[in-house]
């Protein structure tokens, strides 16, 4: 029987103005996986996420998200890296979260706002509900957008540096909620520079630096150590078991399902 994947990418190439940002990327994620997407600035992490969202179109390659071509779907939620808003933009924080539930053909309802407030309470920003987004701190805006990602009860969550503005307590809460989400059958991809924290929760790790170095599951290898972060391949040690990222996709010996 052919295995189905929530995310399936084959031979993905993408360029900005003729410069290749992603080259021959292959990636397969089954339901329930939490992928830690790591790598240096400019390596292509954000670009890969935007391709999976349908915001960017690849030059070539096969991309399927929840079995279809990428596009707008309430089954897919997104937390962007940039949380900035225009100073005088009037939208309230609770409405930003509630918009995560809104269908294009109907207005927001009180039920939408009630569920939005539940998620804001969960992430510690319920007191900000009536404030405009422009009145919030960077960390508060980040938590509002995280609450919006969860409010639609999605199947897949894509997050781009979601802890960049968060204090340690909020980071721990987010990672705990992400783990519970994936344990419950959701799938998540989290781009992060917080290597040790995210890798301790991840079921798989990928390092993106133009090409993609992928490891689908931790293997017992006491000799694995954290090597230079800015270069691939790298090895990650977390929660007593190492995640090992050894070779680019397609290279003999890279191993593992989804690393074809």
Number of helices: 6
N-to-C CA distance: 17 Å
What is the overall silhouette?
A: globular
**Biggest sheet strand line-up:** 5-6-7-3-8-9
Strand fraction equals 25-35%
Secondary-structure element series: EEEHEEHHHEHEHEEEE
Q: Helicity, in percent?
A: 25-40%
- Strand runs, count: 11
Rg, rounded, reads 18 Å
Q: Which CATH architecture of the largest domain? A: 3-Layer(aba) Sandwich
Mean pLDDT: 80
- Name the CATH class of the largest domain: Alpha Beta
Which class best fits the helix and strand makeup?
alpha/beta
> What low-confidence regions span 5 or more consecutive residues with pLDDT below 50?
218-231, 233-260
CATH superfamily of the largest domain: P-loop containing nucleotide triphosphate hydrolases
Question: According to CATH, what is the topology of the largest domain?
Answer: Rossmann fold
Largest sheet, strands/sense/barrel: 6 strands, mixed
Protein name: ABC transporter related protein
InterPro entries: AAA+_ATPase (IPR003593), ABC_transporter-like_ATP-bd (IPR003439), ABC_transporter-like_CS (IPR017871), Metal_Ion_Import_ABC (IPR050153), P-loop_NTPase (IPR027417)
Keywords: ATP-binding, Nucleotide-binding, Transport
Domain ABC transporter: 7-234
Describe the structure.
Residues 7-234 form the ABC transporter domain. GO terms for molecular function: ATP binding; ATP hydrolysis activity. This is ABC transporter related protein. InterPro entries: AAA+_ATPase, ABC_transporter-like_ATP-bd, ABC_transporter-like_CS, Metal_Ion_Import_ABC, P-loop_NTPase. Helix 3 (110-122) packs across helix 4. The chain has two domains: 1-75 and 154-260, P-loop containing nucleotide triphosphate hydrolases (Rossmann fold); 83-152, no CATH class. The chain has helices at 45-53, 93-98, 110-122, 138-151, 168-183, 195-201, and strands at residues 7-16, 19-29, 34-38, 60-65, 76-79, 156-160, 187-191, 204-209, 211-215, 234-238, 241-245. The chain has a six-stranded mixed β-sheet with strand order 5-6-7-3-8-9, with helices on both faces. It has six helices and eleven strands.
